[in-house]
Design brief:
The complex is a heterodimer of chains A (148) and B (89). With 148 residues, chain A is α/β, with parallel strands linked by helices. Chain A has five helices and four strands. Chain B contains three helices and four strands; from the N terminus they run βαββαβα. A four-stranded parallel beta sheet of chain B has the order 2-1-3-4, covered by helices on one side.
Chain lengths: 148, 89
Amino acid sequence: MPLPELPDGAVEIGASAEDWRAAVRLAGDGLVRSGAATAAYADEMIRMIEEHGPYVVIAPGLALAHARPGPEVLGDGLGVVTLAEPVNFGHPHNDPVSVVLALAIKTADAHLAAVAELANVFNDSNAIQALAAASSVAEVQAIMGGTA
Amino acid sequence: MKIVAICGAGIGSSGILKVNAERVLKKLDIEADVTAVHLDSLEMARDAQVILTSAEFVEKIGKTFADVIVIENFFDTNELTTKLQASLG
């Protein structure tokens, strides 16, 4: 499975979020617009962070919000939000966060190929900054598609 | 060699740790089986030599015979390489 498609609706750039919850919700909204998840999936992603802490901030400036596969997931999908003003998740090393990804996966077994693609994108240490600085949805899609 | 990557959901972050750990281990020419699991299936980590995770889960993982390695930047294969080498070397 390649990286889930990133339709225009799943991307929001230069968004305003007053805190990490709002930022995760914005990324969840992208999944709703692309038909990958219901609005309740954002609640699940927030609940995971409330329960386990800010571990989703897996690299400097980047949060990979996700929850477990469940009824809120309608299909595999990815949402991307870049923030005009970064927010803190309370992570000891990787705050503040200016790029929030939301990952929805229908079945856990199938997700590793998609995640491997994410690793391909972000093992390039410039990718997070490039995303944060992107000025158009197409630019974000190009970076995520590895064509930038 | 058994290595387990642990996160809260067992998808996403632990998956990225698994993928990148496999890449690093291949470069180091170390044969290992890397599994991504979530906290509720910790029993899968019982016979692991190494646990890869983020700082938030160290306490929840609790007592273990495995070497618990905390990764800060999941996409930094240099960090993974250094920490895995220190643990396995």
